Every structure is written in structure tokens, then in C-alpha cells.
Amino acid sequence: MPQGTEAKPAEPSVVRGNEALLSRFAFDDTQDLEDARRGFLGTAADSVVKDADGRAVWDLGAYGFLDGECPATANPSLWRQSRLCSDHGLFQVTEGVYQVRGFDLSNMTIVEGDRGVLVIDPLISSETAAAGLALYRGHRGDRPVSAVLYTHSHVDHFGGVRGVVTDADVAGGVLVLAPQGFLEHAVSENVYAGTAMGRRAAYMYGAALPKGERGQIGAGLGQTTSTGTVGLIPPTTYITRTGQTETVDGIRMVFQLTPGTEAPAELNIHFPDHAALCMAENATHNLHNLLTLRGAQVRDPRVWARYLTEAIDLFTASSDVAFASHHWPVWGRERMVEFLSQQRDVYAYLHDQTLRMLNQGLTGSEIAELMELPPTLERAWHTHGYYGSVSHNTKAVYQRYMGWFDGNPAHLWEHPPAEAAQRYVEFMGGAEEVLRRARQSYADGDFRWVVQVVNHVVFADPDNAEARGLQADALEQLGYGSENGTWRNFYLMGAHELRHGPVGTPTVTAAPDLLAALTLEQLFDALAIRVDGPGSWGADIAVRWNITTGDPVTMRLRNGVLTSVTGTGPAADADPDVEITLTEADLRAVLLGAVPPTDLTARDDVEISGDLAKLTELLGHLGTPDPDFTIVTP
What we know:
Elements (H helix, E strand, L loop, with lengths): L11 H13 L6 H7 L2 E3 L5 E3 L5 E4 L16 H10 L3 E6 L2 E5 L6 E5 L4 E4 L5 H15 L4 E5 L17 H5 L3 E5 L2 H10 L2 H12 L31 E3 L5 E4 L2 E7 L9 E5 L4 E3 L22 H15 L5 E3 L6 E2 L1 H26 L5 H7 L4 H5 L10 H13 L14 H11 L3 H13 L3 H14 L4 H17 L3 H16 L11 H5 L3 H10 L10 E8 L5 E6 L2 E6 L11 E5 L1 H8 L15 E4 L2 H7 L15
Parallel strand pairs: 7-8, 8-9, 9-10, 14-15, 17-20
Antiparallel strand pairs: 1-4, 2-3, 4-5, 5-6, 6-7, 11-12, 12-13, 13-14, 15-16, 17-18, 18-19, 20-21
Helix pairs in contact: 1-16, 6-7, 7-17, 8-9, 9-12, 10-12, 13-15, 14-15, 14-16, 15-16, 16-17
């Protein structure tokens, strides 16, 4: 088999599998297509959104190929979903409510008030958000932004805020509303594990893959992530309880808090004067993630289902349309109730049936192989696993309750991947024999097994070109057959990096605005995560920060652990190596690396007593995260 670097055609077994879906599901059902195009007003004349340096951060026309027939290299169900998600432009949801769709992974919703507009979820990048707002104004007039509302704490719902408002606007009275806990979760997710999540998000969304029939065709929830400037303006008003009402620029809103569902801080919004219900990301046209492939805290499908029941009870009797921050709306009360009920049932079913089977002794991977949705849910297009999947969501429920260990002591202390791989390959007769057998499995269409077994050869010898090529080919075939957009992207990104080398992380999660929004406690926690533990076992350094506008904080590095103690109680070091009096802004500048410690000596408003070199020594024990770490090779 050739081991070139170009994408290969679909193998016969993949073609047959994709063709079988055409008779299994109702591809002649056009309701979603009608809903996705309903209310279309127009789109941007310039298809490419660029940043200040002229770099393209989004291309509206990149998915034009989806207008064609589904090729053999794509699952027809995913092709259908991607075609629906690729429609871009300004759409009217109902009188006074509009959505910009297809300008990023998420939707931006604009609600007209007495004087200006409320912007809900301003996309990922300021450039795409600005383009979306300009499109709206081109059709509806140059209305000012009266308020911004973040429905939840994921970056595709706040990152583009500086494209619609400025700090000066907010200082001048523009409100920024968000659910309780928003800021804590928005910044911690993107900083604490942000480097690893960002690297894996490069696989999940496939932003670096070529767009096309053998490349990236979408991510299920939307097409992919924009790669522009991420920002954050902290909220000025928090929603703290279900039933809370707010009126902004004449727009009446009733809120439902839904913590622990799709995000740790999230809310739904009812607009009584518009008979409209915003479901944020709690009910979209796909099965969502209970644990994203990029990594996150496991979500709770039990409370997710309960909040959907609550939303049905609270709002559907007085609503004519339900819309969300992804995909297209659902019109009509009967259809809304059915949609929300089926969304509720799919999360409840996965939760309850996983618990039933794990209590019979099955492991997460075993349950995932046995789990099937009821026929009514399987037939509903909006419960398909385009983004989440029955397989990995089932494993997430298992993980939430049981953790990583399946109870088998054989799995308690396994060798790490590279060391285990060397032993496996030796046991199996050497790399040449493994590859000979794997090529036969590939010819038989057993790509899942090829990937599993050849991975051992790659990890035992990452320079084995034949193994890398075969692994890439098998991953590619799994991608061609996947209904799930993020699975397809993971498989194809793995193939791409095996053939061409790592592409790194296209997006920056720990943007300056997010770092600035860290509380001091979060900032000290973020530094502690970066300590080189073994390299600092012998260090014992204490630094006290006397902050001019707050309580003193003592940092101490000892036993490879960096602790921070506020105040002067027993836990604080009574005799620090150095004591520094400064403003909080100067403290942040030093800890974030913007100002070297030695520069503090030249500041008239900074007082230093003790050995300043100890601070430099302490900071020297902090490592730097690697956004380009390997994934498909050791």
C-alpha cells in the first residue's frame, strides 16, 4: 500500500457503511432545511473576515462545496448537518429578534430595544463579532449596543465582545449580564488547563485541516472555530436565581439558571414580550457533550434533564419560538415541547442506562458498545451524535460516578503508552510482523483494530515511516465513516500530523483579557500549577506581598509546592526572605512576567526589604506550558 502524504479515497467498507445510512434515516425530511433558512435577510458581501494585520480569521465561503452531493469520503448524516450549519447571514427569528449565523462556531443573537440592541453571545473573535454586527446594522439600521449578555462561560459565547462594545462603552453605562459564577469558570477553564485543552481543541475542531470532501467539513455544533482576537469584558450584572427578571432598554427578560448542564455557569432566557425562549446551549440540534474531547469537567446529565423539564414547565406555554446559541430555531409550541422533551429524554436515558449497566458490573467501554437509543430518539435528527456521541457520553457518565479505574486490578498500574508499546510489539513478533497483520486487517476493513494495534508500533518507534503511514490511512478511513464531526476531525487531524508533523494550536485560550480577569487567588493558583516540582524539592523561599489596597499575601515554595496565604495568621511565614510593598497592578505585572523583578528597584512607589534575588529564584522554578505537545506520537 502506498505511504504518501496525500489524503486517500474511501475504502469499499467505508463506502458501504455510508451508503447504508441513506436507507436507515429520513433524508427526505426537509423540516430542518426550511427552519435553517427561514427569515434569511442577507449575508456579507465580503466572504473573508480579516484581523488588523490582514490575516483571514474566518471564511464564509469555505464550505461552499457542501452544496454538492455527499461524497464517499463523508458520512451522509454529518454532511447533511454540516450543510445546515454552513448557511450564513442575518436571520429574523421573530419580530425584534435576529441571529447572525455561520459567522463563527456559535450564533450571535440581537434583540431590539427601545433605543438600541441587546447582543447575546458575541462569538469567539472580535473580528467575526464586528462583522456580524455590521451585517445586522446594514439591514436594520445603526442602532447602538445597549447591553451584552453572556449565556454561559465558554469562549465561543464571550470571546468576541470587544467587536461589539468597548471598555468605554461599559464605563458609560452599557450593561454586561451573565449567570452567577461566569467569570470564575470562564477564566479558570482557559488558564488552569488551557494549554492542554487548546491543543486538543485543534484536533476537535480541525481548524488547521483543509476544508473539503477529504478534509474538514464541520464540527457538528457549527463548522469550526474562528482564529481571531479573543477578549473578555467582565460582567456588570449577575443573574443569581431562576425567576429573576431584568428589563434592559425596554427588553423584558425572565431568567432560568442552569448550572452544571452544558457549562458550570449557564442560563436560559425567556422574552415574554416576544414570546421567545433562548435555550443558550442546553438544547441544540445535536446530542451535546457530557465530556468534550478537548477536555473539561464532566457535565451532569441528570440535572441537565431536570432543567429541560423545568424550562418546558416555565416557558413553553407562553412561547412561540425557541432558539439557541448554535443551529436554527424551532417554531410552534407543540414542536417546541417535543423538541425540548426529546432533548431531555436523551440525556436522562444515557444517564440512567449507564448507571443501570455499571451497577451490573459493566465498565465504561463495555457500556458504550451496548448502549443504543430508543427508536424514537434515534430517528430524531436533533439527537444524533454530531458533536457529543452516545459512545463517549456514556463513558463520561461512567467517569463521573466511577472515575478512571474500571475495577480490574490488571489496569491499576499499567505501563505508560510508550513503554507498554515496546513490550507489545516485542510480544507480537516485532514491528514488521505487526504491520504485516495490520495491513491484512486494513484490507478487511477493520480500521478500528488497525488503529489500535499500529498505535503500539508508532509509540514503540515513532520514526517508523511505514507504521506512521498505515496509522494515518486507517485513521482517515475512520474519519470518512464518522457521523460525529469532532470524531472526524480528531481522526483526520491525527492522520494529518502523522504525515506532516504537528500543527500546534491555532487559537489562543489564555488571552490577555482572560489573564487580567483572574482573581488574585486564581492567579496564585495558576502559578502553582506551573511549578517544576522535582526541580524545586530543595527550595525553601518565602515572599510577602504587601498590597497597597488589600491584605498581604505570602507566597512560599517548599517541598515542591507553591502556597499562597492571605493575611498574617499562623499559616503565613513570619520571616519572609523578601517583603515587597506595591500596587495590585504592579504585582500582577510581575507575576505574569510583564515586569522583571529587578525593575521594581527603580520604582519610587515600591518598597523592598530583604533579598530580592529570592523572588527571581522562586520565579525561576516556574515552567512554561507547551502548546505544541505531541498527541499521536510519544
